[in-house]
Structures are given as structure tokens and as C-alpha cells.
Amino acid sequence: MVVARQLLLRRFSYYTRPTMGYLKEKIIYDMTSDTATKPTDQMFEIMKQATRGDDVYHEDESVKALERYVSDLTGHEDALFCASGTMTNQLCLRAHLLQPPHSVLLDARSHVFIHECGGLAYHSQANVTPVHAQNGIYMTAAEVAINIAGEDVHQSPTRVVSIENTLNGLIMPRDEIEKISVLARSRGIKMHVDGARLWNASEESGVSLREYGKLFDSMSLCLSKGIGAPIGSILVGSKPFVAKCRHLRKLMGGGWRQAGSLAAVAHWCIENIMPTMKHTHQQAKRLAMSLEALGCVLVYPCMTNQVWLNTAPTGVTTGQLAEELAKYGIKIPGGNGVTCRMVLHHQISDEAIDQFITVAQNLFEQYKGSKPLAITGPASILAYPTTVQ
């Protein structure tokens, strides 16, 4: 009985200790996704200073400050802070899609199509027109034009064109987006962007969020990927549009009460972490170039913070590479295939990149002269990769 009580007290103290100092974790450089960033001590201090109002009643000043800030950044009238990018995408699309039959035209690799649990069908009763980009990088205005569904009674008319930028780390040229925007709006079709990593596109291309904002009726901007906030995503649009999204958010169970601490830290992250993205992109490009020089194949050109890698020519699986890297505190997707996606972020150090390259070089050297592995299984990613979180 005494032993049981001691164990209970020990467990209780573990979770209620006022500081986390004694729960020191081994440093892991996690490249599985930019969602893997950990909140820092400084972020927790920011959270403690936030207001504590009720956002369901639109009474929290930290939340309202974030929403004003992002709406101003993007040149839109209003914004709505939400829990996730899936939620902000689905809210935007549902608010645009008023009455079926209707459809959304998008790139076949789009997150809203593949990785949001069929949300377009479930929430909006919408059909989808997936476009397979012939250039392998982004869909063009010409491809959009020939895929728009009209008002024929046999069709589900296109009501929204949804663009993802970046998509698989690739930047869609602003000029192409503008052509699509002009085309869509000339036909009364709404423009939406899944901008989970639009921050990266903006920092790398030099196109401001406000310039991008002119091309879209709604924008979804994730805060917990490259921006590095612990939780959250934010949508922007006109005041009536955001009011509709706010109502739908409550319907979907997304209204939250004291969300000020999360909004405050997201606000801080935009101001302090977004400027570091160019350095992260440089790290990713250096890693990509080094791995290519060691015999790997790049599935996609490295434009921002993602490295899409094929190790087949080296005779090494991604699982073997992941196992070796793990010994040095570097985490990448493993498995028995020969392809993987690595995503860098502000918590990946230059030393970790150096270590990665050294480990890969030593491992590939061991397999030098080996027969290249067959491109099977997960390597179908080479033909037409899909996005992942």
C-alpha cells in the first residue's frame, strides 16, 4: 500500500512540477515535418503574458490583435484564428460553396483533396476536379481553363479554384496565379489558397503576402508549420465571409474560449521566425545538392524547405539511412522504400546538416558498387508525389 502511494505521488509530481528543467529531452533534429518544432521557453513566457478573454464571444484582445495583424499583412478585411489548417481550409471552402451541385478545381496533389478526410464531400457536398500538372511542378492557367465545369445540367459547376502554395515545397509563380485568378474571377469563380507554407513562398520569392492576397478571395495560413507556433491556423477574407466562417467554426465545434495564449505566441512567431526562413531554405538546398552529389536523385527541385529524396542509385533504402542518422540524433522518415520527404525548419542547426551529409557519405561509401535498388513501393512517389502534413 505504501509503495503504491509512493508511485502515485511520483506520477503526480511528474506532471505538476512547476518547471520542466529535470525533464530534459535528448536533442532530436526532426526533419519529418516542419510541424515537428517544439515550443521554446521564450514562447511559454509570451503565452503567460497573453490576455485571457473568451474568443467565442470575440472578447480576447490577443486573438483580436493577431487577427488584425494577419488581415493587414494579407490586405484582407478580416481574419479568423482556428485550431488547424484543415479547419481553415474546410471553413473557407464551405463558406464559398453555397448550394450543390458544385465543384472545386485543384491540383491533384492538393492537401485539401488528399489529406483532409474527404472534407469537401463531407462538409460541402462538393465534387472535385483534380488537375494533373503536366509540367510536374504546378498547374497552369491553360490547364485550369480546359477543366472548368460549366452550367450544363450534366455537370457540377466549378465554383472555387483552390491553389496550394507552396506545394511539395515548390513555389507556384505569381504570374501564373494571376492568370488563373483573372480567368476564374471573369467567370464568377472564387479563388482560395491553401497557404500552409505561403510564408515560405513569400520569403523565398520576395512576393509579399499582401501581393499574394490580391489574387485570392480567401486564404488559409498555417501557424504551426514553418512559422513554428505550437498550435493554430488563420484564415482571411472579407468581413461578411469571415463572419460566415466564424459561424461555421462554431457549428464544427471549433469555437474556443481562452485562446489568447496561443494567439499571442503565434503573433510572436510570425514576427520572429518568418525572417529566418531564408536561412532554412539555404540549409535545405545545401543538403539537397550534397545528397545529389553523393548519388541520390531529387524527386523535385529544392525551392524552399523540403528535400524530396530518392536513394535508389546508392543501393541504400531510406530506412537504412534513417537508422544510421538516428544514431546522431537526426530523424527522417524511414521504411523499406527508396524515397522520402524531409522538411527543414528553424530548429534544424547548420551542424545537423553537416552531420547528415557526413553520415550519408559514409553510409553510401559502404554500398559503393552495389546494384541500384528497384524503384518500387513508396517510390511511386517519383511518378506523381502526393502532399503530406
Describe the structure concisely for a colleague.
This protein is an alpha/beta fold. Helices cover 42% and strands 14% of the residues. Mean pLDDT is 91; it is low at 1-23 and 376-389.
Determine the CATH superfamily of the largest domain: Type I PLP-dependent aspartate aminotransferase-like (Major domain)
Computed structural class: alpha/beta
CATH class identity of the largest domain? Alpha Beta
CATH architecture of the largest domain: 3-Layer(aba) Sandwich
What is the average per-residue confidence, as pLDDT, rounded to a whole number? 91
List the helices and strands in order: HEHHEHEHHEHEHEHHEEHHHEEHEEH
How large a portion of the residues is in β-strands, by DSSP E? 5-15%
- Work out the number of β strands: 12
Major β-sheet, in short?
A: 7 strands, mixed
What would you call the shape? globular
* Tally of separate domains: 2
Q: Please, how many helices?
A: 15
> Roughly how many Å apart are the termini?
47 Å
Cα radius of gyration in angstroms = 23 Å
Keywords:
7-stranded mixed β-sheet; 3-stranded antiparallel β-sheet; 12 strands; 2 domains; 389 residues; disordered N terminus; Aspartate Aminotransferase, domain 1; Aspartate Aminotransferase, domain 2; alpha/beta
How would you sum up this structure, described in words?
This protein is α/β, with parallel strands linked by helices. It folds into two domains: 205 residues, Type I PLP-dependent aspartate aminotransferase-like (Major domain) (Aspartate Aminotransferase, domain 2); 106 residues, Aspartate Aminotransferase, domain 1, CATH 3.90.1150.10. 42% of the residues lie in helices and 14% in strands. The protein contains 15 helices and twelve strands. The protein has a seven-stranded mixed sheet, sandwiched between helices. Strands 9-10-12 form a three-stranded antiparallel sheet. Helix 3 runs parallel beside helix 12, helix 4 crosses helix 11 and helix 7 runs parallel beside helix 8. The chain is globular. The N terminus and C terminus are likely disordered.
